[in-house]
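Quarterly update, task 2.4: delta-meso nitroheme-bound model.
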Amino acid sequence: PLSLANVQGDILFGLPKQTQSFFFFQIDQVDAFRSNLSNLVPLITSAQQTQTNISEIRQFKIKNNIAVDAGDGEVVHPDVITVSGVNIAFSAKGLQKSKFSTKLTFMRIGILDDINDTLFNNGMKSDASNLGDSGMQQADGTFQPDWDDTFLQEIHGVTLVTGDSHDTVNDKLASVKDILSGTVTEISTLSGDVRPGDEAGHEHFGYKDGVSNPAVQDVEAINPGQATIDQGVALLGRGVDTATTRPSWALDGSFMAFRKLPQLVPEFDKFLLDTAKTQDAADLMGARFVGRWKSGAPIMNATTQDDPALGADATLNNDFKFVKGDQSACPFAAHIRKMNPRNDLSESAIQPHMILRRGIPFGPEVSDEERQANATAQERGLLFVCYQSVLSSGFSFLQQAWANKQNFPPGDSPTPGFDPIIGQTTSGDVRTMTGAFVNNTSQPLNLLAQWVNSKGGEYFFSPSIPTLQNVFAT
Ligand code: N7H
């Protein structure tokens, strides 16, 4: 049976965080790196430790009358409790470099150790054009995505450091760098922060995030309406994943998709107001884009206005289904309907595509100047992270086959169109959707712009702690 002590904490529960840094590195000295890794392993936060941390934070909040968070890794309020977390993950190039994978002979037991995930083996850059990222076809036939320099370089690994404050995270990150020093080169460190005050837990467009994540079978209690996924949808070598051939060291690991997703917030708000004319109508249209109001309340159960009590109640805020073939209450193309088409498809058809989301916002709050100019001057958005056992069923599938597909959910009339939040066109078509206008749901809306534009990322493998200790480290 699964032991929570073996799995890295971000996968199953989400490391608690007020702030988080992602330290992207290249491995220079393989043998020395592997030896230093053995000193890093004691710092790695397991799912068991994470579960304890989250329950301590919840107890503390209840005792002090602080609202308990319904979402993605408990948000730690600064100066309340000191907590930190460390996880580590490797790209395919990183594993090749350290001679574990892929299609290279596995050094210790002499088997061919292909981890058996083509998207992982090839890296995210090879997937960029399929995902619909903008970029240029090169003369040599390769696609050069319009990404930040960081992600155009060869990244071998990433260390995730989370905590209650910048001081905590910076101290912890300094220890990590110290342990790995001389064996890795830093490519870049990206940091994200929970938004301030009442916006805590909300992404930059203003919507509560981390409301809906599936529960993993036999790991978590579930709330009404929350899906339970087979352990093998999240973890390699478990449950349904045993059908795929994996090297033995892959057991209890998970693929982590990382994406840097800047968001054009004032532009998004201006589009809504220009299109809907009044602020109330703009708020409703925004909620119809997402499928939830800013509080997290699902529009299926709060059709005309936000209901903050509903948004905050974890026992109610996932307890809804869409009505197949009907977009009067929620557009077919709404982000949460595209990403989890409850009732549009059967439960068994959706389950293999479920992911565990662990992102964090980055960048400053929108300034008065940006608000007045309706134009972004400072980069902000989401450092998107999700875990799954098969990238071509999880992140990459959701982006390509559901968000970017105009006729998904299938069989609906009028055609749903693009996910207005994350849908991307691969052909340079204009993005349109139906269902945005509550009084005429068949009227198509030309979205005019794209407000989330990927600046890169990578596919990583987050190994089990025993594998880090006994196989990767020496
Ligand atoms: Fe999404 N947003 O603010 O609009 N997302 N998302 N996402 N997303 C969700 O249910 C957002 C992105 C999923 O089970 C909510 O937790 C933004 C990518 C999935 O009902 C909000 C960005 C992918 C769900 C947002 C972004 C997904 C989900 C509602 C990028 C995968 C759960 C809160 C900047 C390819 C669906 C919640 C369910 C929910 C937003 C990215 C997937 C508010 C701004 C790239 C599976």
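Highlight for this quarter: Residues 101-112 have pLDDT under 50 and may be disordered.
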